[in-house]
Amino acid sequence: MSHTAPVTLVQKLAQRHAGEATGPAPCSKRVPVSAYTDPVRLEQEREKLFMARPLIIAHETQIPNPGDAIVYDWLGLPLITIRDKDGEVGTFMNVCRHRGMRLVQEEGQTCLRSMVCPYHQWTYGLDGSLRNIPRDESFVDLDLSELGLVSLPTEVRNGLVWMQADKGARMNLDAHLAGLDQDLDVFDMAGYHFCQQHVRTVDCNWKLVQDAFLDGYHVVRLHKNTVGPFFPDALAESDLIGDHTRSAVARNEIAEAVDLHAEQLDLRHHSSFSYTVFPNAVLIFHPEYTSIISLFPQGPDKTVFAHTMLTPQLPESEEQRDHFRRSFELIDQGVFEAEDIFVSIGAQRGLLSGANDALLFGGLEEAAVRFHDIIERELASAN
Q: Which of 153, 181, 250, 263 is the most buried (most CB within 10 A)?
């Protein structure tokens, strides 16, 4: 294995399991309730975190063929991410350049031969170029090449489609990843395949969901009736790759790893790795599949939660399809919906009660502490 950092985390988990290393130091960090409820704060986060950075929109196998597209308004902007006839992936504002009409009406996955405005039938190619204006003789001095759809910076890397929602930006994906792509290669992110997706809107602040996914402290407690029995209590390690968090939570099989050499470790078997891709995505590497979770704030107490399952191969038999359907239902409904989202919504309601002035994070929640420190740094540097 060429990239050793994930292996090092598993080795440290094994050492802690054997009593040969200590865990995180105790701490107490308080995050004010207003960070989760203030609409002014949310607008600052939207501008300085979400619009200023590349975001994961999809896995490229979700749109494998020319014309395959995803239509979404997750960032408060009407957008289309689409593969053109040359196989290139681009993102465009879903807005006609004539009179501003929305081109494709329904959100979700679709396949298009072209993009046609329902108002006056202006027609755009899959590459966003304006191809036809009915009765063009009625206009003066029009240059079709200047009236293509507004494009946003888009790039495919490690099988993921990255987009920055600032039409004037020059997206620097290398700087944003800060070496994260090496870890994504270790987990063969580009080699996996889109299987299924569930997009929902949940009634809580986006950071409450991130807090849950950054926290190994709750696993055996909140998830005691689902995945909790597969894990020892609060045996987790994390570090930073740039502003992204690499986390490893030991599985019960970590006991097998105590006497193994680095090359014998199985990252998906001995531990559960997750990566919080700052600011709003979580990649979780389960033993048999991978989850991508993307969070898009719609308001201080409302968030789009998009969960995508990737599998090593496309299921070919009905037995395989049924297996992954049941696996997806278990993690998406039984764990995320019934447990992680449940407590996030409950916490949002609790914050609005006025009972607390701040949320408290301790040493076993150190990854969440770092996450909030980075947000505070970014918002302060923007002022």
A: 250
Q: What domains are there in the chain, each with its CATH number?
A: 5-53+189-382 (3.90.380.10), 55-170 (2.102.10.10)
Beta bridge partners of 59: 160
Please indicate, yes or no, whether the overall pTM of this predicted structure exceeds 0.90.
yes
pLDDT in tens, 364-376: 999 999 999 999 9
pLDDT in tens, 305-357: 999 999 999 999 999 999 999 999 999 999 999 999 999 999 999 999 999 99
- Of the candidates 314, 305, 308, the residue with the CA atom closest to the CA atom of residue 328: 308
What is the distance between the alpha carbons of residues 55 and 85, in angstroms, rounded to a whole number?
Answer: 24
Give tens-digit pLDDT for 228-245: 999 999 999 999 999 999
- Whether the CB-CB separation of 181 and 328 falls below 8 Å is answered with no
Nearest-Å Rg of the Cα atoms of the chain is: 22
| H-helix segments, 134-246 | 173-177, 180-186, 206-213, 219-222
The residue among 184, 162, 206, 175 whose CA lies nearest residue 283 is 184
Cα(94)–Cα(341) distance, integer angstroms:
30
- Supply 80's token pair: 């289309």
Helices 206-213 & 342-352, crossing angle to 10 degrees?
A: 130
Tokens coding 33: 């309730």
Q: Report how many helices (DSSP H) and strands (DSSP E) the chain contains, helices first.
A: 12, 20
Residue of 305, 331, 345, 308 whose CA lies nearest to 226: 331
Whether 136 and 120 have beta carbons less than 8 Å apart is answered as no
Helix (H, G, I), strand (E, B) or coil at 186: helix
List, in order, residues 6 or more apart from 265 with CB less than 8 Å away: 7, 10, 11, 257
Tokens of 85: 């006839």
**Beta-carbon contacts of residue 290 (< 8 Å; ≥ 6 apart):** 187, 189, 192, 283, 284, 309, 310, 311
Distance, in Å, from the CA atom of 17 to the CA atom of 260, rounded to the nearest integer, reads 13
